[in-house]
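Sample log: ABC transporter permease.
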Amino acid sequence: MTLALERFDVDGLGERRLSAVRRLVAAGGRGLWLAPIVAALAVTTLYPTVFLIALSLSKSSLGSPFRAFVGLDQFGRVLTDPVFLAAIGRSIVYGFVGSALQLVAGFAIALLFSSLITGGRLLVSLVLLPLMTPPVMVGVAWKLILAPAGGLLNGWLLAAGIIEAPISFLGTGGWAWLSIGLADFWQWTPFIVILCFAALTTLPDGVIEASVIDGANARQRLIHIILPALAAPLASIFVLKLIIAFKLFDLVYVLTFGGPGFDTTNAGFAIWKHGLQEFDVAQAAAETLIYAVVIGLVTLPVVKLHAALERWDT
């Protein structure tokens, strides 16, 4: 009896040890699967960030980096530069206003497509065309359309008698930003349409049909059923488009080159200009880090709202 109990205890201990070993092996296997991802993130994110910090703390040019350690002098220059601070302000305003308008328009178009009995998915596929066009080509096309001499838009407005003389859409500050926004709207609204259309397909048909039977009209279904159900996905789409808008550079470069004056110089263009045109990569690095912090701060409330909506949705 005693020997049997001892044997039982030994066998039980062995099984427990074997289970622990299996758990360790399983955990190690998961770690091995994650190792390439961690390594890729370290190379593509950690190294550039450390390099940027090192550049921002030094006196560096494009051809001669790390000539001397200057501490926080570059950050002091950037934070007292009215041109760059104004550029950050333009980026923030354009990001929020442009993203909000594109979300409203994209959701409305997606709602229209989803209401079609046939052809909705085909139309969604067709609106992909602007999204597949390279941004530089989008800028060139819109620059030709908006040109004061021979431009398609000025030609139409003159022919219709709406204007008496061509408008320099890209030569005046207000019109220039509207022109950039129009080109950006044309390219990125299809992206919003696709995401919103996908979100609309997740709505249960039974709920919509029941509301129709109960006598709810289209406006009531939108306000009381569709929007509350899709609040979290729409917030996700807005955050994604906001990040894309904060990175705007190519359209500014092609359409206005930051002008007239500094009227359309946003943060991305200012960083490029200081780093790759004036070769002051140290200042550009400091500007990049400051802009990243600003983006994090201004998007934090939106991200928190998105998290709150997701918790409410569940």
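Observation: Strands lie at 58-59, 68-69.
Observation: The longest helix spans residues 2-56.
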